[in-house]
Amino acid sequence: MPLAFSTLGCPGDSLAQVIATAHASGATALELRAAPGEFIFPGMSPAQCAEVSRQLSDAGIGVLALASYVKVCALDADDAEAAATSAAPVTVASRESSAHDPVLAELLAAVELAAALSVGNKTLGLDGAQVRVFPGAGLDPVAPGEEPSSELRAADALGARRLNAAAERARELGVTMLLETHDSHPRATDISRILSQVDAAAPVKVIWDLMHPWRYDEAPERTAELLAESLAYAQYKDGMRNPGSNSVTLTLPGEGELPLPQMRALAAGISAAHGVADPWISLEWERAWHPELPPVADALGALKASLAL
């Protein structure tokens, strides 16, 4: 299976250093983290994007996704109230509404950036461009067995509305928006509430961050069942659950409690059902947030060993 990794695992590294790490590990694509101080950042010029794309293409490295920090469910007070009280279904908003919605404007900018950085994908056998987004409602996830609050449901609707509003431009540029199992919506159960309100024609799929549904007690089989029609790829990491909490202490892949081989098999089964025999395996190593962790090269080696790649 093709291997990728997120540049979250090598904060501050130059593009040349990241390419060298990819070549040494056998990785053939990257999740490019867009953040200030990195070689990928919001607001890059067309010339800067073209140069990064050229260097990656020359190195035989594709862009699996632009890892943006857009939070599509971030609640605006007026929008949240309207979404919570309206009985009408969420509809596709016009792109002009981005002038009144900074989150939508940020999403559209991320779509443009993903398209510009992924030009070289066509020559490397990757399909189009992808941009990762977070739910990011700023709310606690719903507890198992409980109904979502009106505020969470408003966030669901708002996230769907923004994804619908960005869909036309994303289609024009060949970009798929990837909603990650994360933060306020860590389980597939949570993500499904948003997807149920996204237009069927919108280019929206899901990244299964393997850790978050697991640490919020959603069985991998259930996650896979709910993502069977929407999975783009899985993000791999490992850790030990801290007793009595949903928090996790990160470990090298294979040294924690996540059933990574089982999860890999479930993700591969979904891909196979859609005609993809060789799905991506992407490592998300959180060294940007946890500098005490070993280098990403060590984590890549551990992941390959744990999955017998």
Low-pLDDT segments, ≥5 res: 87-96
The secondary structure category is alpha/beta
- Could you tell me the strand content as a percent range? 15-25%
* Name of the top-level CATH class: Alpha Beta
CATH architecture: Alpha-Beta Barrel
| Range of helix content | 25-40%
- The CATH homologous superfamily corresponds to Divalent-metal-dependent TIM barrel enzymes
Q: What is the CA-based Rg, rounded?
A: 19 Å
- Please give the alpha-carbon distance between the first and last residues: 7 Å
Mean pLDDT reading? 94
Domain unit count: 1
Order of strands in the sheet with most strands: 1-2-3-4-5-6-7-10
Shape: globular
Count of alpha/pi helices = 11
Number of strands: 10
Main sheet, how many strands, which sense, barrel? 8 strands, parallel, barrel
CATH topology: TIM Barrel
SSE pattern: EHEHEHHHEHEHEHHEEEHEH
Tell me what you see in this structure:
The protein is α/β, with parallel strands linked by helices. It has a single domain, classed as Divalent-metal-dependent TIM barrel enzymes (TIM Barrel, Alpha-Beta Barrel). Helix content is 39%, strand content 17%. The protein contains 11 helices and 10 strands. It has an 8-stranded parallel beta barrel, surrounded by 5 helices. A two-stranded antiparallel sheet has the order 8-9. α4 (102-117) packs parallel to α6 and α6 packs across α7. The protein is globular, with a radius of gyration of 19 Å. The protein starts with a strand and ends with a helix. The model is unreliable at 87-96 (pLDDT under 50).
